[in-house]
């Protein structure tokens, strides 16, 4: 947040100001509180002449910010006046006239604020108006006739106070001319203000809603960049960043002078507060369980961002498949990702005067981010991506591009073959020793690896049967049942509730995994832990089959810190279900993707390296680079 | 000897089988009505004759409805009442009031079976027995009616504000209990596991969502373990409480109890007194029944042709997984259930 204190003003008032400024920020969602406190605050205002708190009930955060910004601009203008008097020649030389000018500015601001509905426009108006003030082109005529006279007068008083205070501060800062930043800032501010000064504030107001989506996005991006720049705590740093960003962006938005101003305006606030982002946040909060507020639900409406020209079609398609869950299971997701990645590599064209490896890295990173937006990346996918990047950095610099591409394609192919294909074979062959005649194997949901192992056992003509445990709402077990049925394996099918009913029959429990965490916990489809728990209780050995490419370096002790939330509507069974209108009530269906099985519930993990206890995961993670790639 | 069922009994059995009468409470109530009718009828002259009739009818019901233990429970209650009233009246006649079974001591518990069975002859016709029984039956009826209320009153003793409570399926006692808790305590979060395939948990969730100041989370059964790490208390209903303190509860209760045990979460079971059955069953095979599998998997799906599909209705929960029973008379530890049983039923009536 850009604070306008200059370094030289005394410390005590600075703190006071800061405290006041912080207050509305804390209260933005508690309008009632604000109303209760407003008499108090108005009393304080008399002493401090700070207008921000008054009438907080009807003022949004943006408005408050806008006022602050106006103050800031005014002050800078004053500073400018002392350092480069030519820029603001026409501005009144003494503080007294300046005050009146600013008062007028504030009036126009506030009146336009009252007449417009969107907060963004008001903000622009503030800046535009301030800009006008610095060029002494305050147009009282632009002030539209206002019906809300009661509010207006209050705001006027406030504005006057505000202006007085700003002027005082400006006078104070004017004395200190030793600041290095000031010159640059003022220059940039001049640049900034050239554009809006041509347009009257009313014009700006009209133009505002006509902003295209693309422009807005550009603005947001600029704003984000500026925010990152403006993180330094130096006084005046924020305005500098603002100005810089504005300069950067000016060519693109030069047609709409308002936009440039808007940028500089918006930059002073954090991106989360921009109105574009507010509305989705709100709707999300409505259907969220408090415990899981920290988890971002994947944007299921992939069409929102799928038409991105920078995304390769194969990745775009994959993104949709991820989002719609046509590709599920960490192996399938990983393979699909690598295939798409190979396409990307093949079609990649190195931009002029750029290095192949680096520019490809950037492009792939963008694509992976896109996929992550569609659905949070599976551990297997992010591991594959990590390996791929590792490979990119090791590319020789003097080899022709086509050869490099071939190398990368070869790497991807071997990764799929070794990490997924051969690993499955290795796991299967070691599992075959464990499956004997008369075995009753219990498995949960659907795992391609388990399916592979069972089919192999069937091929070996082992007489065994399988109990498939399933759970709503995914019902992946039905798919497993279908596949096993196709291979003629006798099956029993129960829901997870009934696992205690079938567990006494089972001789072994085979479970697939989404990932194995570094602390030995198994992350798998929700319900796996329950099956393992029940197996443990009945003294049935639990074997988790997991390739090492799914090993994760993350530590996790519960399923709540990191998880994936799926569509809660999947819990609603049919039109007659009581959960149908859950949106309207206090009821929230929660659809978790994964859970975490503690290592004490798992007898062993079967990997392509060896059959290990869960706790050996860190060992594998450490030796992994040596064992194959 | 083969007894014929009364017309009322056949009607009730039919109604229960057709699902017209549902829930332990209404079944108990209806059974009690039948026994009341029997007592009022003139078909018996002595306590012994009455007990014969009650035994016969309850045996029929038990055979017809093996899963509904409450009918036998209430029959045992009636038998015990008959014995008590008879003893009391006999004692009045013989002027040794202290021998009545109203005051049970451990010593008497141990000794009474041998003494009483010899000494008391129930076949003597007793004046005023019918009236006394009907009076006492009124008490039982009131107890039955208020049992749910009496359980829910205890909600405040067990639930504090901002607690996260997990429950499974839909039990009427639990519903009332939680409603009471929501009224008395703020910021409760109630997690309802749906209990597939019937998904009656959805009903409970929807009902509770009408209350204020509460957050209801409906979860699939697979997420029980994941959520358990945050749960403060598990509150479930049960179908019946077995003699060892174990539960015969809705399918999935075992998983819930095990997960709770894993995370050391207390499991509170709401069980009105009429659900206490003197049955010593230590595994689910003894009483379980499988329901319709159509809900689990569509019959017309290809794999369903060959696969065995089960949809069991009950789960056995061993007593060591239960922390506390809350009945209409207060809280009880699972290890205390046997004592409640001896107070509730006469030792000779355990076998009907």
From TrEMBL, chain A:
Region spans: Disordered: 1-100, 134-280
Comp. bias (Polar residues): 1-12, 34-55, 178-190
Subcellular location: Cytoplasm, Cytosol
GO MF annotations in UniProt: guanyl-nucleotide exchange factor activity; translation initiation factor activity
Name of protein: Translation initiation factor eIF2B subunit delta
Biased composition (Basic residues): 14-29
Keywords annotated in UniProt: Cytoplasm, Initiation factor, Protein biosynthesis
InterPro entries in the record: IF-2B-related, IF_2B-like_C, NagB/RpiA_transferase-like
GO CC annotations, alphabetized: cytosol; intracellular protein-containing complex
Similarity remark: Belongs to the eIF-2B alpha/beta/delta subunits family.
Keyword Protein biosynthesis: yes
Predominant localisation class: cytoplasm
Organism: Drosophila albomicans
Statement: the UniProt record of this protein carries the keyword Protein biosynthesis: yes
Biased composition regions of type Low complexity, renumbered to the chain: 82-100, 168-177, 220-229
Record note on quaternary structure: Component of the translation initiation factor 2B (eIF2B) complex which is a heterodecamer of two sets of five different subunits: alpha, beta, gamma, delta and epsilon. Subunits alpha, beta and delta comprise a regulatory subcomplex and subunits epsilon and gamma comprise a catalytic subcomplex. Within the complex, the hexameric regulatory complex resides at the center, with the two heterodimeric catalytic subcomplexes bound on opposite sides.
One of the GO BP terms on file: animal organ development
Function description: Acts as a component of the translation initiation factor 2B (eIF2B) complex, which catalyzes the exchange of GDP for GTP on eukaryotic initiation factor 2 (eIF2) gamma subunit. Its guanine nucleotide exchange factor activity is repressed when bound to eIF2 complex phosphorylated on the alpha subunit, thereby limiting the amount of methionyl-initiator methionine tRNA available to the ribosome and consequently global translation is repressed.
Compositional bias per record (Basic and acidic residues), positions renumbered to this chain: 58-72, 149-165, 203-219
TrEMBL record, chain B:
GO molecular function, one term: translation initiation factor activity
Family: Belongs to the eIF-2B alpha/beta/delta subunits family.
Coiled coil: 130-157
Chief location bin: cytoplasm
Subunit comment: Component of the translation initiation factor 2B (eIF2B) complex which is a heterodecamer of two sets of five different subunits: alpha, beta, gamma, delta and epsilon. Subunits alpha, beta and delta comprise a regulatory subcomplex and subunits epsilon and gamma comprise a catalytic subcomplex. Within the complex, the hexameric regulatory complex resides at the center, with the two heterodimeric catalytic subcomplexes bound on opposite sides.
Keywords, sorted A to Z: Coiled coil, Cytoplasm, Initiation factor, Protein biosynthesis
Entry protein name: Translation initiation factor eIF2B subunit beta
Gene Ontology cellular component terms for the protein in this record: cytosol; eukaryotic translation initiation factor 2B complex
Gene3D superfamilies: Translation initiation factor eif-2b, domain 2
Protein location: Cytoplasm, Cytosol
Pfam family, one: IF-2B
Alphabetical list of InterPro entries matching this protein: eIF2B_beta_subunit, IF-2B-related, IF_2B-like_C, NagB/RpiA_transferase-like
PANTHER family per the UniProt record, alphabetical: TRANSLATION INITIATION FACTOR EIF-2B SUBUNIT BETA
